[in-house]
Amino acid sequence: MSEESIVATTTDAPVTTIARVGEHEGKSVTLKGWLYNLRESGKLLFPIFRDGTGTIQGIVPKAAVSPEIFERVKGLTQESSVTVTGKVRADKRAPGGYELDVENVEVLQRVPEETPFPISLKEHGTDFLMEHRHLWIRTPRQSAILRIRAEIIKAARDFLDDNGFVLTDSPILTPAACEGTSTLFPVKYFGDEAFLTQSGQLYIESTAMALGKVYSFGPTFRAEKSKTRRHLTEFWMVEPEWAYATLDDLMGLAEQFISFIVERVLTRRAADLKAIGRDTAKLETIKAPFPRISYDEAAQMLKDAHAKGLIEQPFEYGNDFGSPDETYISLQFDRPVMVHRYPAHVKAFYMEPDPQDAKYALCVDVLAPEGYGEIIGGSQRIASLDLLKKRIEEHNLPMDAFQWYLDLRRYGSVPHSGFGMGIERVVAWICGLEHVRETIPFARTLNRIYP
Ligand code: 4AD
Ligand code: MG
Asked: Which pLDDT does position 12 carry in this prediction?
């Protein structure tokens, strides 16, 4: 069905969307939406309409419409639902390039004066806005962010689909941990205990052995007790997994993947990026190849920075990087930096040790620039049955629950690699947002599960 579906209305003007009014310049169209704002100046009314694709200002001169229509618009309350008919006029000063000379307005539901829309155009605190998230998403900035999110997801899927990766969905209810036992959400499962998945990885390792190149894309869960601007308890992860791929192959994939996504958003969502005030010059530089540095090199950067007084906390070699560490490292580059070969003991149980020095894991974290930090985590996976068993024991994981996973090393084990990219972290970076809570329609965090 076309975006401009013809729906029965009381006028002959074609129904269209605000995003497409330009195709009807000089002609009358009908829009279906809501009143975003209204400015009144004597015999002139300036309603701003929104319809989910954008906003457009209308002009209602008292002399140009019937008294009935003028009275209908005058004093109309914010977020009342309306269908509007008017003539499209190009106007260079208008944000979208067009204005509407209003001919008719029909009100479907008038928001009563006694219960006005809670989110006025003045500033509100974040807590208030999150409490009204179901309404906050109607505001132009939040709508633009959600459209960009959708574009990022589509780009990620298109890239993988077009490069031979087959979508294989992973289960959400799982019997065991993938990313450490401290962030598991338990659920009752008919008298047994199960968990919400932390990652689809273990399952797509098995579909990769069946299909070669695969990916999963779904919600993942972490009982994160941290209240940071990067952590959600429920987030969406896209995870490619690739049989016969090495860590180097994986890094090549990651840089192509990210470059493709950024380029797509720049071309298809330029208006939204502009509307939210994103400095796109910072995104134009995001082109493969990306810099690659080892954990040791990154640790040395942090040590030097501390010696020069550029960072407060000294970094202790051998630890995982904390958020401030990642922020500092990522600020040193104008594109994402790929940090590889972390000490094995700070990483997950399934990572292949570096054959050059088993102290390190064949893994990579991709840190986004401008201080955004980790957006991708991935690795080559252990191929040896004996080593994998040993790691499961060392991590005190239940061997029984992993028998099926061990089978992948019993029957034609091969080197293979994959990564997970958190959609919300990528949206935050591409949109230039301070906090991941605005990157998803309904954020789930340590202290919020409403609405
Ligand atoms: O680095 P992580 O924990 O890696 C894995 O889960 C692997 N099993 C993925 C794989 O190899 N298939 O998570 C991957 C990404 C992170 O880089 C980050 O972007 C995102 O998922 N992420 C979160 N995003 C929001 N809130 C959280 N609490 C997140 N935890 C991880
Ligand atoms: Mg990680």
From this structure: 81
Q: pTM for this one?
A: 0.96
Structure tokens at 260: 């493709």
Q: Which of 328, 323, 333, 324 is CA-nearest to residue 304?
A: 328
Query: φ, ψ for residue 27 (rounded to 5)?
Result: -120, 165
Assess contact for 371 and 330: CB atoms under 8 A. Answer: yes
Residue type, 392: I
Sites in the chain below the pLDDT cut of 70:
1-11
Whether ligand 1 lies within 6 angstroms of the CB of 232 is answered as: yes
Q: How many domains, in total, are found in the chain?
A: 2
DSSP H or E segment with residue 172: none
Q: What residue numbers bound the domain in which 247 lies?
A: 134-439
Which residue type occupies 89? R
Evaluate whether residue 392 is within a structural domain: yes
- What is the position in ligand 1's atom list of the atom closest to the CA of 377? 1
- 275-295 confidence digits (pLDDT tens): 999 999 999 999 999 999 999
**Residue to mutate (ligand 1; options 237, 242, 379, 424; most atoms within 8 A of CB):** 237
The rounded distance, in Å, linking the Cα atoms of 167 and 407 is 22
CA distance 30 to 9: 8
378 close to 363: Cβ distance less than 8 angstroms: yes
Is 271 part of a structural domain of the chain? yes
